[in-house]
Amino acid sequence: MGVHFGGVTLLNKVLFGPAGYPSDARGSVKRVFQILVDSGMTALEYAAVHGLRTSKAKAIMIGNLARESGVSMSLHAAYYISLASRTQRIRETSRERLRKALRFAPLMNVKRVVFHPGYLGGLTKEEAHIVIRDALRSVWETTDDIEGKAFLAPETAGKLSAYGSIDQIIRLCQDVEGCIPTIDWAHIYARCQGDFGEKHNYLKVLTRFENELGELFLKNMHFHVSGITFTEKGEAAHRPLGEEWGPDILPLLEVVRECGYNPTFISESTNPLQGALYAKYLHEELEKGST
Ligand SMILES: [Zn+2]
Q1: How far apart are CA 236 and CA 164, in angstroms?
Q2: Ligand 1 center to residue 260 CA distance, Å?
Q3: What does the alpha-carbon distance between residue 28 and residue 261 come to, in Å, rounded to a whole number?
Q4: Which of 66, 214, 224, 243 is packed most tightly, with the most Cβ within 10 A?
Q5: 114 CA → ligand 1 middle, Å
Q6: Are 8 and 148 in contact (CB under 8 A)?
Q7: How many structural domains are present in the chain?
Q8: What is the whole-number distance in angstroms between the Cα of residue 15 and the centre of ligand 1?
Q9: What's the pTM?
């Protein structure tokens, strides 16, 4: 029941999991996967958000545990990646961080490397696009010798000053081989100043991605979900899911069901595992309601 695409096999079903290790695992990798399996989780986004510091041996161990547990892996690369930085050295270390993530990904059974392209660095949007596009092309080409290479998965940004509008992410994925989008719904909500979260909003965005990217998008749908607070500059802080903070994700799960989409939901809420369980619960309730 898997589909073969871009060198990786992905299952045709909706997956759920947390961003980062569940805190109850207290850093034990074995316990991480035990907790995920026990709570019915099917995905994990490994958090290398402060840099990828794991050893090769540990990476292989994580990959084996993920495979045995049936947990689909993604990896969130460093927050401080800034491909269009004013400083050349930061641009180069940012490219190197992505190369390293791509080299480690197959060891960890990771299918996609999620990252934020960075800020505009004083450039116009068009200039930033060219710098970021060329940086990603170079990263992709210089890692050609890797077997089972993961996708590069730039994420929709929450801050208005960051590169990562829906249009920009779509364009990057069209212009760079090996790029697929990561849609962070909380970020989109923050960029829209909270004017987002109804079924027609979700449908409009998903239809755009589908029309512009086709199969590449449909076979690799990857969502971040969370509650969020925002200011006029965009994202402020992540908050729990299913409480007073938007966006409401029930309409999103309804759209996913009705359109037959098979995304992976990664919860980035303040308690990521709890958020993932909440998303999965909504999904299961909708399934029950339809039978
Ligand atoms: Zn995110």
Answers
A1: 16
A2: 23
A3: 34
A4: 224
A5: 9
A6: yes
A7: 1
A8: 16
A9: 0.93
The domain containing residue 272 runs over which residues? 2-289
**Token pair for residue 185?**
């719904």
* Measured distance CA(97)–CA(238) in Å, rounded: 25
The two beta strands, 234-239 and 227-231, are antiparallel
Residue 2 CB contacts under 8 Å (≥ 6 apart), including other chains: 9, 10, 11, 12
Q: How many CB atoms lie within 10 A of CB 159?
A: 18
CA distance 22 to 36: 8
Rounded to an integer, what distance in angstroms lies between the CA atom of residue 272 and that of residue 35? Answer: 13
The CA 239 to ligand 1 mean position distance, Å, reads 12
pLDDT at residue 10, as a whole number: 45
Kindly report, residue by residue over 153-184, the tens digit of the pLDDT: 999 999 999 999 999 999 999 999 999 999 99
Report whether 94 contacts 77 (CB < 8 A): no
pLDDT digits (tens, 9 = 90+) for 72-103: 999 999 888 999 999 999 999 999 999 999 99
**Contact in structure between 220 and 10 (CB atoms under 8 Å):** yes
CATH number at residue 243: 3.20.20.150
pLDDT along the chain (291 residues), means of 10: 42 89 90 96 93 90 96 94 95 96 96 95 94 98 94 96 96 98 96 93 97 96 94 90 89 96 96 96 90 59
Backbone φ and ψ of 133, nearest 5°: -60, -50
Q: State in Å: Cα 186 to ligand 1 middle.
A: 8
Question: Cis peptide before 247, with omega less than 30 degrees from 0?
Answer: yes
